[in-house]
């Protein structure tokens, strides 16, 4: 039998909402055991974020919670109660990884900061996630994905040139940060495997946003260039944007001269293969003229015809899909990108971790947990007997009855 | 002295343009030795992508190349020449990781596919990156970041509701994929440390895009909801979008009822603290009215005033920065997010890897290399003597003189 990469690695996960849960889901896909610690009451706020009736009735949680919490068990601890904090510290002493996204200083108030926990467990990989980092003038501020889309400059370069800036439609900063967390944890586990030593690792929405913007920042630092938004186009080459079709729109990208010639000949050489468009430099110089000429051609064809004709001659082309078309596209399922799990009577579909490993495939053992579903089971595995669990419950350390 | 996490790990990097180079830069930041193999002639196409005069004159490469290629050495090999392919295979036998983004089947033509190389080096971690994956109906197609923004549905939810879809301004799919690659390589190295065995790992623009869209896909799969673009706003809560200030605009997010009350009281309670806006449900029901009322207030204030007032009461707020304001913001430098390296007379600034490790800090030993700068040095380290190098050069395996 194939062993998972992270078989035997235990993760104590205090993280909530998006970036942290997305990260620990990947660790779970890799075979780690994820113990999701939730507050009493509502638990992870993502459970009700944008919740729909169908999702609540049939799965008991919002789509975003269901998308990011497979392969985890849920346990309730009320960290305001001293005995709950003692349980958390005791569990951290026997886990390999701890993840949290409390504001800087929040875990120290509970006695669950790295310095304290590392005394009992020097092998612990302690992973912190915050908005702006744990030091510096803005470290005390909270923020979320869209705030960092604004702060990072991403919003300023997203939108039409003569219209206000818009957000990137999905939580790109949060989800990119989740893979920063995964990378940090895996790097620290590799280091621990070679040295025996744990450490503290961290990332932030700020670092995630800066990494997504890195080539714009470097360009600005070089010569002061401040790029602006250009709709679907960019400054690198022409054509490189969306064009209207009869029944939707398609992206056409042909930066190299030979690719542009193939594009012109596959669609309408008499209209497009002009000397004015010959080189990349020519095409940038005659941007408006080329876009108008190509638009005249594309608007007479269907999306399918454009994709077929241009795909066949290796011009980069794609239909502008809506969310449903994208989710149901056969290619995603064909490469194993869709995870299906039974939840009661229904099948839950979610997106696979964003990479594949030939010798150690991803696992999908557990569907997203109900709030506190595994509290007793987990306590029992950590050696708490029925009387001890009862005592914790009496103190409301596990939430109110 | 602190040892880097990936000290002693040798990476043979055939990747070009964005996702692969961004990934191997992170591995280099973690202390791996990155050997960047480039074609003769222009080398990595990113060297000239959107190149500016300043960048070319002073650093010899484009901002995007400079942003993504520190901590690497460059070596030229012309894989069309048999002796160059033999050198590549020989080096792969003595490296720990190989990364490439040739189209599916491309490396097999050179005899550099995983199955071939693993015979001599079963410990090799072989990492492939493609547009749509290596199997399935679309696997033969090329694509780039913006094509997958379209294909994934991200573009359809980015933009104003009554205007055409736009792209996310930066290469989010490429850069997110880069951390998928980093995670895959680190997971495989961890597995190898425990088992002695290498493996093939892969990711794609398709998996990266699907991961960024995961909660939209899950929602669609649950009940058929197809979300649409909403400018800077989203469907989850109100207010949660950009508002105009006297001198720019700011993002204000106050999803929770108490946070909204703090927001109203910090700005203009007489205008904003209305019964119609009391609960999250009320605010969604009176979306247009609330946005109009809040806009009336914000447009009379400066960005700084809005950020100061709302930040002080822990409402999520951020100025919509342009690229320059974002790059120069003091917080990024304060958390170590900016790397400075000497290149001749100039200092190159680039963005740090997107996470930090307390015991094993990132290294920044080498600035981005000139094309083929280290060809002889690397060959010599791999045991090729001057006569062997001369013979390779005579065959044009190292490019033309």
Automatic annotation (TrEMBL), chains A, B:
Xref: InterPro entries: CoA-transferase_III_domain, CoA-Trfase_fam_III, CoA-Trfase_III_dom3_sf, CoA-Trfase_III_dom_1_sf
Membrane-spanning ranges: none
Keyword list, A-Z: Transferase
Molecular function (Gene Ontology), one example: CoA-transferase activity
Tagged with keyword Cytoplasm: no
SUPFAM superfamilies documented for this protein: CoA-transferase family III (CaiB/BaiF)
A Pfam family that the UniProt record links to this protein: CoA_transf_3
PANTHER family referenced in this protein's UniProt entry, alphabetically: BLL6097 PROTEIN (PTHR48207:SF4), SUCCINATE--HYDROXYMETHYLGLUTARATE COA-TRANSFERASE (PTHR48207)
Protein name stated in the entry: CoA:oxalate CoA-transferase
Organism for this UniProt entry: Faunimonas pinastri
